[in-house]
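Subject: Predicted fold for Glutamate receptor 1-like, 270 residues

User T.R. writes:
Posting the sequence so we have a shared reference for the thread.
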Amino acid sequence: CSILKNGTFAMVATTTASSYETLVSYSNTFQIPIVSPSFPYHTRLRPAKYGISMRPNYLQAILDLIQHYRWKQIVYIYDSDAGLLKLQNLYKLTTNEYKLEIIKVRRVISASEANKFLVNYDNETRDQLKHVVIDCEANLTREIIIKHIMDEFANNPAMEFGAVNITGFRLVQNNSRAYEEVFTEKSRHQWPDPKTKRITSEAALMYDGTRVMLGAFKQLLNEYPAIFAKNFRRGEVYNNNTRGIDCKREKIMPWEHGNEIFHRLRNVSG
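User M.O. replies:
I've generated the C-alpha cells; pasting them so everyone works from the same file.
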C-alpha cells in the first residue's frame, strides 16, 4: 500500500506461486497493469485481468511434437509445482483420434535424482525404446541430459552417442538484435561471468517485458503528450484528484489510466 500511495503507473515483476495471488489481487482491484516474465500455471483460479505474461504457452507445441513423432507413450519429468497442472493440460489437449499414455511421472530436484530414476526405469525396460519429456529449468535439463549420457557411456563404452536423440525448445534467440544489445550493455558492467555469453530465459523474458513497458508508454505519450499532465503536482502523483492510489480507503478508486496503459501493453509490436 505504501508503494501504491506514492503513485504506481504499472508494475514489472517476477511472480512465483506464493507472490502471484498478492500481486494480481492488487492489480485486478486497482486496475494497475503488471508485466511478468511468466505467471504460475494455476492462474485460472485468479486470472490476471491486467496482466501480461511474456512466456509463451508451449504445451501445444509439446503435444504437436509428440504427435509428429507418433509417440504413444511418454515418461514425464518435471521440477516445479506447475508440472502436474501442465501434465493435466497435456491430457486435455489430446483427442479421441490421438490418445497419449503417461508411463512414468517423476518430480526431481537434481540431475542425480533424475538420472537415478531414468537408469532404474531403463533397467526395467532394457529392450524398449523410451520417449522422455523433461519439463525442467534449462540448466537442470542440461545437467540431466549430460549426466545420463555420460553415465550410460561409462557403463557401456560400445554405446554411440547417436543412440540418444534430443529435441528441445529455445526461448532465447542468440542471433537476434535484442540479444546482442543485452551483451553490449553487459560488457559495460561488472557481471559474474563476463566471458560467458549466456542469459537465462527468465532474464531474457524480464528484458522483453521491460521493452514492452517502455514501448507502451512511448506510444501512449507520442499520441497523447499531455495524458499525465494532471497526475503530477508538486512532485507527487495524483489519481482522480487523490494523492497516489489509496488502497485503504473504503470506496475503491482504481488507477484512472490503467485500462489505457493495459491496452497499449497488449498492442506493442516489435
